[in-house]
Structure formats: structure tokens, C-alpha cells
Amino acid sequence: MDYNELIIIAENAKANAYAPYSRFRVGAAVLAENGEVFSGANIENSTYGATNCAERTAVFNAISKGAKKVKAVAIISDSEDYIYPCGICRQVIYEFSVEDTEIICCDKNKNYKVYSMKELLPYAFKLDIKEEE
Ligand code: THU
Questions:
Q1: What is the pTM of this model?
Q2: Is residue 7 part of a domain?
Q3: Domain range holding 51?
Q4: Burial call 51-87: b when 16+ CB within 10 Å, e when fewer
Q5: pLDDT value at position 51?
Q6: Is residue 133 one of the residues assigned to a domain?
Q7: What is the structure's pLDDT at 56?
Q8: In order along the chain (133 residues), what is the average pLDDT of each group of 10 residues?
Q9: Is residue 116 in contact with ligand 1, taking CB distance under 6 Å?
Q10: What is the number of structural domains in the chain?
Q11: 53 CB less than 6 Å from ligand 1?
């Protein structure tokens, strides 16, 4: 799948953001290794701390529907600035990443910069597990 298509899916997901506190709407789209695409938006909470970022919503959506590995994640907001995943989301994406997983960081006009997972989370923490777990 072309990254431009993935970005449009992320942008469409942004429409369902629940962000009444920050008013900062974010959408994300995950390209799974099997070619399937899953999306998500940020979902805020009045406790603030229970807020879920768009990237995690999209990854959890993918994994809960049977995807095993994440090839790429596109992220977009309404900001003129490029958006980058927070530290928690980097760790969550890393959990399901492959050797060449890429993160596509967009500005609101769908200009994008591509980063490898390794660039965004070097020396990441992972426990060794059997693949089936
Ligand atoms: N947010 C995301 O959804 N993804 C990011 O990469 C950064 C931040 C959300 C969390 C919160 O709902 C709002 O943006 C402001 O932090």
C-alpha cells in the first residue's frame, strides 16, 4: 500500500477523535504485515491520564482483530507541524514491529516524513518470547 493512501485512512480516522479537553485531534493508520489496514483516533478522558493516543488505538485495533506485525504507522493531526508519536506509543508500536517498520509523520496538509522504528526508539526494551505467545 502506498503511504499516501495510508495517510488518507489516518486522516479519515481523525474525524472520530474524542478530544474535548485538548481539542487536539489525531488519527493513525496501521499497515499490518499481511497487508490489512487498521485505524484509530485519540480518545481522551476526564481523568486526563486515561487518555489513549491515536497510534495506540490503531495498534490495539489491529492486534485485537488478528494482525500480528506492524509494517507502517501513519499519523496525522490538524497541526501545521509534523506529528511524532509519544514515548508510550513508540514502545507499543515497537512491540509489534518488524525489522523495517516505518513511521510516517504528517503535517495537516499530508506532507510527510518517514522514520524507521529504530530511529524513533533506539536501544528499545523487549523481553524474549516464543513467537506464538
Ligand atoms: N496524541 C496522540 O493521539 N498522538 C500523539 O502522537 C501525540 C498526542 C493525543 C493525546 C491527547 O489526546 C492529545 O493528542 C493531546 O496530547
A1: 0.96
A2: yes
A3: 3-120
A4: bbbbbbbbbebbbeeebeebbbbbbbbbeeebbebee
A5: 98
A6: no
A7: 98
A8: 96 98 98 98 98 98 98 98 98 98 98 98 93 60
A9: no
A10: 1
A11: yes
Which among 68, 46, 66, 44 has a CA at the least distance from the CA of 57? 44
The answer, yes or no, to whether any atom of ligand 1 lies below 6 A from the CB of 58, is no
CATH number at residue 107: 3.40.140.10
Distance of CA 11 to the CA centre of its chain: 12
State which amino acid sits at residue 53. Answer: C
- Hey, whose CA ends up nearest to atom 10 of ligand 1? 53
85 in ligand 1 pocket by Cβ < 6 Å?
Answer: yes
Q: Identify which of 103, 76, 65, 54 has the alpha carbon closest to the alpha carbon of residue 7.
A: 76
Angle between helices 87-95 and 54-64 in degrees, nearest 10: 20
Domain presence at residue 130: no
- Distance from Cα 131 to the centre of ligand 1, integer Å: 31
Residue to substitute in 14, 23, 42, 91 for testing ligand 1 pocket (most ligand atoms within 8 angstroms of CB): 42
pLDDT, position 1: 84
